[in-house]
Amino acid sequence: MKCESVKIHRVEAAPAEPGRYRNCVDRDAGVISREIFSDASIFQAELERIYTRAWLFVGHESQIKNPGDFFTSRMGNESVILCRDQKEGIHVFLNTCRHRGMKVCQYDEGNTRQFTCPYHAWSYTTEGKLHGVPMYGTLYEEHLDKDQWSLIEVAQLHNYKGTIWATWDKDAPPFLEYIGDAKEHLDLALDGLDGAPGETEVFVGVQKWIIPANWKVGAENFLGDTYHNPSHRSVDDIGIGPSAQAGRKGRRDDELSGAQHVWVNFPAGHGAHSAIQPKMLPYAEAYQDNPQVEQYFRRCYEQRQERQGEKSRLLPFVCTIFPNTSFNGRQPRSITVFHPHGAMHTEMWRWYLIDKGAPPEVRDLMRHFYMRYQGPAGMTEQDDIENWQMATESSAGPIARRYPYNYQQSLGRAGKHETLAGNVSTQISEENPRTFYTRWADYLEGDDWDRLMGRDDPIFKNLAGVDDE
Ligand code: FES
Ligand SMILES: [Fe+2]
To answer: Does residue 325 sit within a domain?
Structure first.
């Protein structure tokens, strides 16, 4: 029997009244309702309308190097399996058995020839095909067409410089179109420090922890909330940066001093904070106490300048690809996903990136830095999460929820930049979240892909108009 014969697969909740979500975001005034960070029905709508459509980061190909390797990830609040099949093809499957829905994979990662469901032992190949059904000949043969009951696979998958992205929406634009000009900033994290395209890999495992805050709070912070720097004063003062052993203060190596900082947003809702050096500068000594590390970073820096020329003046900081994938571009260099658990609970996953060719001394130094900086025990991370947790708590009460948040910072100050694509501010700005939440509302209102890609967005239409002159 074909699975299509059941006509009702899902009973949808009654649609919200049109404008319910758009009314939560006033981009022009710079005001956003607190409801969107705590309301359970809005959270449910996000799962239905954002996480079933947008491109989501699932994992890195360096986690599944060999045939049969798998990594269990998430898309929205659902478990998925990222796996390399026996013929080297990469797949992302929903982690649910087609019989009664048990998770067919119980492990965080590993290697297998097949996924065997623990409940009644149906088994699936690494290509997702239903292969083994106990007592098939006696109980099922005339009825069960195995070809109809494969694992559920994503509609589209894209491997971008080793990062694996997927969407459930067959009508979503191709990944490269989806990220658009945010690619320029994403590349800064995914290319080697020497500028070699995609020469990074994941190392030291994936950190996972649950925080009591809405997923958008973290995603928004990574759009470039530079304004929150005072909350990191203590870690700046004690100097937890990677070159701290040379007596330097700060959380990172200060490669960006003298650079023009830019806050850039893109029509599909992505946003980045990067910086442009005023000219091609010589390498700044940083690791004099550690000659091997010093030599490595110097060589990478100079090779990147040779390879990219003037383009090498662009240096990364942070970036969020809509909706929930964020990057630290350099110090540290990592990918963070804010997995939605509930209106006020999020599971943070962090992958750490390193150059494929980095020697052991560099790997060791960065490993220690990442532990000091990020993750549940990282000192910088704790500053952030204390803010996010307490802001969530003090925003969720019946009185607090009547008063919106203020997003008026640098209102009307973004526009065209002489070298960068996108809507650019050269002063600290909340323009990135203003665009992010405008797209957020479009998804929740159920808009089409033209709208979700910001093709009719007046701000970006005006930028294009400047181009044409
Ligand atoms: S739920 Fe998987 S075999 Fe029954
Ligand atoms: Fe922070």
So the answer is: yes
Ligand 1 atom showing the smallest separation from residue 104 Cα? 2
Helices H, strands E: what count in the chain? 12, 21
The domain total for the chain is 2
Give the ligand at the shortest distance from the Cα of 225: 2
Pinpoint the alpha helices (H) of 194-257.
215-221, 233-238
For ligand 1, whether the C-beta of 388 sits within 6 Å is no
Does one domain contain both 394 and 354?
yes
Q: Which one-letter DSSP state was computed for residue 415?
A: B
Q: Looking at the structure, do residues 312 and 193 belong to the same domain, yes or no?
A: yes
Q: How far is CA 258 from the centre of its chain?
A: 29
Residue 131 alpha carbon to ligand 2 centre in Å = 48
Q: Are residues 167 and 182 in the same domain?
A: no
Q: Which domain holds residue 92?
A: 56-171
pLDDT digits (tens, 9 = 90+) for 133-143: 999 999 998 89
Mean pLDDT of 219-239: 93
Q: What is the pLDDT of residue 469?
A: 44
pLDDT tens-digit map of 390-401: 999 999 999 999
Please give the structure tokens belonging to residue 17.
């009244």
122 lines ligand 1 (CB under 6 A): yes
CA distance linking residue 270 with residue 427, whole number of Å: 18
pLDDT digits (tens, 9 = 90+) for 326-344: 999 988 999 999 999 999 9
Closest-lying ligand 1 atom to the alpha carbon of residue 98: 2
Which protein residue's CA is at the shortest distance from atom 3 of ligand 1? 120
pLDDT level of residue 289 (50, 70, 90 thresholds)? confident
User: Does ligand 1 have an atom closer than 6 angstroms to the CB of 100?
Assistant: yes
Q: Is this prediction's pTM over 0.70?
A: yes
Alpha-carbon distance of 456 to 442, in angstroms, equals: 12
Give the rounded percent of residues in the chain with a pLDDT score beyond 90.
86
Name residues whose C-beta falls within 8 Å of residue 167's C-beta, 6 or more positions apart in sequence.
53, 54, 55, 56, 154, 155, 156
Examine the domain organization and report whether 332 and 258 are in the same domain: yes
CATH number at residue 360: 3.90.380.10
Does residue 195 share a domain with residue 127?
no
Question: Regarding beta strands 271-276 and 260-265, do their DSSP bridges make them parallel or antiparallel, or are they unpaired?
Answer: antiparallel
